Amino acid sequence: xxxxxxxxxxxxxxxxxxxxxFFLSLLTLTxxxxxxxxxxxxxxxxxxxLAAVTALSSLVLAGWVGVTLVPVLARRTPLRWLAYKMEYRxxxxxxxxIAGIFVVALAALNTGNNLLFLILSSLLAVVxxxxxxxxxxxxxxxxxxxxxxxxxxxxxxxxxxxxxNEKLTLPSFSLRVEGVPGKDSTRAAVLETPVxxxxxxxxxxxxxxVPLVFPRRGVYSQEALRxxxxxxxxxxxxxxxxxxxxxxxxxxxxxxxxxxxxxxxxLQGSVESLKKGRGQxxxxxxxxxxxxxxxxxxxxxxxxxxxxxxxxxxxxxxxRVLLVLDPALPEGMERPTxxxxxxxxxxxSIAWYFxxxxxxxxxxxxxxxxxxxxxxxxxxxxxxxxxxxEPQAHSAGAxxxxxxRGESELSKVVLTSxxxxxxxxxxxxxxxxxxxxxx
Length: 439
Prior knowledge:
Layout: H1 3-13, H2 16-44, H3 48-76, H4 80-83, E1 86-90, H5 92-111, H6 114-138, E2 141-146, E3 151-152, E4 156-165, E5 172-179, E6 195-200, E7 204-213, E8 218-229, E9 236-251, H7 258-270, E10 276-287, H8 299-305, E11 309-314, E12 320-325, H9 336-356, E13 360-365, E14 368-369, E15 373-374, H10 375-388, H11 398-402, E16 411-416, H12 425-430, E17 431-435
Parallel strand pairs: 3-9, 12-13, 12-16, 16-17
Antiparallel strand pairs: 1-9, 2-4, 4-7, 5-6, 5-8, 8-9, 10-11, 13-14, 13-15
């Protein structure tokens, strides 16, 4: 990029009224300075009237600039560099370097050797240059953190960390981006592993992909990031905080777990349709009729019974499921947190199973539910509720269990920690229960 291109970019981005005010104030102050110098010369020559007039004119011009043009420039100038809060820390190498400076300084003072004073001044100049270069490296840097839209607990995802150098002429070197712990200790940070950028070109951006794993469901937040550098000599570690409010909702894992594999056969049987139709799942066996097709004859059953038997199939479009998670936990339950999290993951796996089998699904928990709809339309609403659900007192779920007695048209799958003897008899006979203490 040549100088003319840089100047053209600066001209495009510049605030032209502000630029005009700047050059007008510069010209006016130059005239005021010349009048002040001329008033001094006139006073030495004995022309007191001319000296008073030129001095007064100089003060008027300077005052006019201060009253009219300076506020305009102050309002139009975004002094972002004043808002940069720099953090400083001497590294171990820096402490050794400072100790060497003190040794050279003592030797120079004791001996009065000019060469030692020259070496001392060079060492101090290196410290000053290190501070200036590190500040230039950190200024004009913006950070962006990109995450996938759907994140599941325990799965590795690729997060994008992008640095943009807004400086038109100078690159940046040796930058490290790291997360800043938030004030809310209940929420884990998003970025816990530092990301290193060896080189950031001028007026350009660089993106690095970082593998991240969120071990548990819930909300993760990142309030700010720190851009850190030890450039150029490693004596001083300087950092700048970049505010970056980011929240991530992590869904519970939907991978088939051991608990899911254990309940899957019974789960499949409990939601079979009670109506026959053109499906793939076996509904029942009956005696052969003359209108039946020979391809539906069940030959093994016919051989055992001695008469022809035909298969009838269930309707695939009749899987209407009510999935219920009772968050109430009884007092004295062993490992309640662990079992509740296993129940949440199991509930998410069951919901995902119905999503893959194109079932009609409704989800219900204490204080929230989704409408009955194809599982593909509400699956993310279900996972969002499961990501945020928290255990409740044992008395909080009584109304939830009672509300299930009127859902006779739906196959019910209920995850609860209540003992079997406390469940209504009609509900016990019409629903499939998974008990949390048995997980």
